[in-house]
Design brief:
Blueprint (H helix, E strand, L loop, with lengths): L27 H18 L3 H20 L3 H16 L8 H15 L6 H7 L4 H15 L8 H11 L4 H16 L8 H16 L5 H8 L3 H14 L7
């Protein structure tokens, strides 16, 4: 059974080619009858507003996952989450696109696939504020326990996009380890934490990247990087040329 098809693939499809079981052409009366049957078959599949909502939402989930190159298990999980939201009757009055992006991001977290909320809302063509609000709403209403994202995964991902050396990544990981020990990562966006440690590492290794360059790859704001960066500089015991 697949969660990505609104009727779970259980319905019957009537062939449109106008051939009988022996692959011979139908006469005009038979073609007219088959046309009527196909029309009512389509209508029976999507009989109400909930079905129409689900058909549209599942297609949007598939589009977002395709744009981001997400694996099949994320697509299936996001589709299941959206179905559950409909079953629990909690999406009334909320943006379909907002719940779609929230479902995809929650699926990424559950499947341990690296992806930022910003990447998802951009792929879903929705405002960041709306996407974040929908995600928090969905987690609360479904009582979902979403695994915490590992900032180290984001460090490796962003390092690759910024074409930084292995030495810089080693230093970034050491800074991250210290930040975790000092509990500086609790309640913080893992992408923001990763961006900050990368920024510090580039200053220490003379492979300097501007905050703007890091922001572009990490999908966080420069304010976020500065706040996390200043906190780490203040709490972690190391020297850097600023």
């Amino acid at each position: 059974m697949t969660w990505t098809i609104h009727d779970k693939g259980l319905s019957t499809n009537i062939d449109w080619r106008g051939l009988d079981s022996s692959r011979r052409g139908l006469n005009p009366d038979q073609r007219a009858q088959m046309y009527r049957l196909r029309k009512w078959n389509r209508r029976s599949k999507v009989s109400g507003s909930s079905d129409r909502n689900l058909v549209f939402a599942l297609s949007e989930i598939a589009k977002v996952c395709y744009k981001l190159g997400l694996p099949r298990n994320v697509l299936e999980t996001a589709s299941f989450i959206y179905r559950r939201a409909i079953k629990e009757r909690i999406i009334m009055g909320r943006s379909i696109q907002g719940v779609v992006t929230a479902s995809v991001y929650m699926a990424c977290r559950n499947c341990n696939v690296i992806g930022t909320l910003e990447e998802v809302w951009e792929a879903g063509n929705i405002a960041k504020k709306e996407s974040g609000r929908s995600y928090r709403f969905l987690v609360r209403k479904l009582g979902a326990r979403v695994p915490s994202a590992d900032p180290s995964n984001y460090v490796s991902k962003f390092m690759g996009k910024l074409a930084l050396s292995g030495s810089a990544e080693i230093i970034a990981m050491k800074i991250l380890d210290q930040a975790i020990k000092l509990r500086l990562t609790i309640g913080r966006d893992p992408a923001g934490i990763a961006a900050a440690v990368i920024y510090i590492a580039t200053r220490l290794t003379d492979e300097q990247r501007t905050q703007g360059e890091i922001v572009k790859q990490a999908h966080v704001t420069e304010v976020t990087i500065r706040n996390r960066y200043k906190e780490m500089i203040r709490k972690i015991n190391f020297e850097t040329k600023l």
